[in-house]
């Protein structure tokens, strides 16, 4: 198949045999029907938890030498589809979850390898010194069952297949959503000022060795060049990776790869990434990185993205697995000051949290 676009941005055509796409990503491709006429199985296999559950789907691709093929001429294959344990050739893979990226003889192609089709590349963005750099490590952990329902317990957790009481974090912060939309009700921001946090500014209640539950916010000035390095902080490589999505902007993918195997501590991963060149080794200066808005992070690896923060507002950055978003694997990127953001129209509806008053409920019992 010939890849021609990703996330709505055209790329220079690239021929691959297997495409791996995660939640939120979009790829357009052209399939060359150059085999002999007949009926062919199209095979789609899930990854991660769905792979453990042996989820697989099939479709039929049927074509003939005639230019005009009626529905009556399409036939279902007479042979059974291949079973789960029957291997199939994968060849060149785009977006493999365990890819090392750019290794000699490696059959894997990373998203950063794709070449944007846009003629006028933004050299100022690609080669600029970023105004803001962020290193964001994400992971999930299992809550201590002794704390779940205690006064010092957790804000939220989720129980899923094979694991229990999962909580999502970015830089050891589990996101707590604001009780109102900040873009349309900015007058309420002062009432929750003590709820905002980041890795260098956390509420006093947060302990160094515990995940902090607060509203994770990163702030940049309008039109800043922003570079984010997203790091999978898991202990081991798995058959799963996280797709991260940025609202309100698109970004260029500057590099991807694996963190050195012996690098375990989060601080060491950050230090290693800071020492790397802005573009991965061997990338020619003429390379025009692809534009995307959702990107997969190689398992226990990293992806570096860069964008111009030219859209003022409060924008969510999050893992596109919905349950990971639900358990706190997200943060807010504030672009510009409130007075630089668009105002809601007169009479725009307001809203708040949906939680009932606990004391009133207890009084009814």
Automatic annotation (TrEMBL):
The keyword Chaperone does not apply. Residues 1-64, 187-336 form the Plastocyanin-like domain. SUPFAM superfamilies: Cupredoxins (SSF49503). Keywords: Copper, Metal-binding, Oxidoreductase. InterPro entries: Cu-oxidase_2nd, Cu-oxidase_C, Cu-oxidase_fam, Cu_oxidase_CS, Cu_oxidase_Cu_BS, Cupredoxin. GO terms for molecular function: metal ion binding; oxidoreductase activity. This is Uncharacterized protein.
